[in-house]
Each structure stands twice: as structure tokens, then as C-alpha cells.
Amino acid sequence: MATGAVTAQGAGTQESVDQGKRDFLYIATAAFGAVGAVAAIAPFINQLAPDEETIAAGAPIEVDLAPIAEGQIMHVVWRSKPIFVRHLTQKEVEESKSADWHEMIDPAPEQARVKDGHDQWLVVIGICTHLGCIPLDKEGPYGGWKCPCHGSLYDPLGRVRHGPAPANLAVPPYAFLSDTKIRVG
């Protein structure tokens, strides 16, 4: 009888060891399956997000205006194009308002070039409208930009004043998010 008691007791121990192994295998299988499911689904979810090229091609950018001192120009890139953000001086604002824009190559009043309430900020695409050169800052007799290739001259508001350029520097779509931040695009 002593042998039978030992056998029954040994069988109970073996059964609890087998149950522990089964529990471990269930948990390991479930964890492995979950990791496999995530690994299989992740590429599909990632493909829904736009790639870097798409983002660079047209996503809006935010520009902090705080570091731009009066009279300075900041260059940023949006849609692979140079954007000039200029903090106009009070003198430039007054001269731009008083300029006879009717006589310019591409007539445009000051209000068409800046946002209401933010007369001191100009945002333009920095590409000459003649042949696509990048104009140089604060060059020429008007103190705006000068195209180094063919000599077009722009005033501080990016209006073409002289040269072969047929149009003003383009104003991209932009909006003020606050007094010190804009979103271009």
C-alpha cells in the first residue's frame, strides 16, 4: 500500500507540472501570436501615413517670427521653393503705402501684398518672375531685391519696379496663427 500511495502522490505532482507547462505554452503562444499580428498589420497602417516626399511637396510649414528683427529677412523652404519672410521697417511701410503703384510694371497696392493688421510682415516666394532666378536681398535702388541674372529690381514689398520680370514676387497662401507665428501653405 505504501507503494500505491507514493504512486498516487507522484501522479498528482506530475499532473501539476504538466498543467504549469501547458499554461506557459498557452501564454507563450498567445504572446507570439499577438506580436505576429502587430508585425503583420504595422506595414498596412504605416502606408496610410504620407511619406516624407509628400510632406515636403506640399505640407504647410509654421514660421516663428519672433527671432526676425525689424529690417531683417528670413529664408525658409516650402514646396521646394524659397520663401522670404521680411520684417519691414516703419520707413519701408510708409514708403510702400505712398508709392504710386499704378505706374508699376505689375500694379499692386500695399494691401494686396500684406495681411491686414500685419503691415510690417511680407511673405513672398523668392523666385524671380522672369526666368526663375533667386533674387538677392536688399539690393538695388529700391532696397528690396535684385535679380542677379537679368537685373530685375523689386521694392521691399516684392513689387517689380524695373527690368524684364513681368510680375511681382508671388505671395504664397499664408495665415497668422498669432502675432509671432505664421503658417505657410
The appropriate CATH architecture of the largest domain is 3-layer Sandwich
In total, the number of domains comes to: 2
- What number is the mean pLDDT? 86
Largest sheet: 4 strands, antiparallel
Q: Can you count the helices?
A: 3
CATH level-3 fold name of the largest domain: Rieske Iron-sulfur Protein
How far the N terminus sits from the C terminus, by CA atoms, comes to 90 Å
What Rg, in angstroms, do the CA atoms define? 34 Å
Strand order of the largest sheet: 5-6-7-8
Task: Please provide the ordered H/E string of secondary-structure elements.
Answer: HHEEEHEEEEEEE
Describe the structure.
The protein is α+β, with helices and mostly antiparallel strands and 185 residues long. It has 2 domains: 1-49; 55-184, 3-layer Sandwich (Rieske Iron-sulfur Protein). Helices cover 33% and strands 23% of the residues. The protein has 3 helices and 10 strands; from the N terminus they run H-H-E-E-E-H-E-E-E-E-E-E-E. The protein has helices at residues 2-46, 52-58, 90-98, and strands at 61-64, 73-78, 81-87, 121-125, 136-139, 144-146, 153-154, 160-162, 174-178, 181-184. It has a 4-stranded antiparallel β-sheet with strand order 5-6-7-8, with no helix packed on it. The chain has a 3-stranded antiparallel β-sheet with strand order 1-10-9, with no helix packed on it. A 3-stranded antiparallel β-sheet has the order 2-3-4. It is elongated, with a radius of gyration of 34 Å. It starts with a helix and ends with a strand. The mean pLDDT is 86.
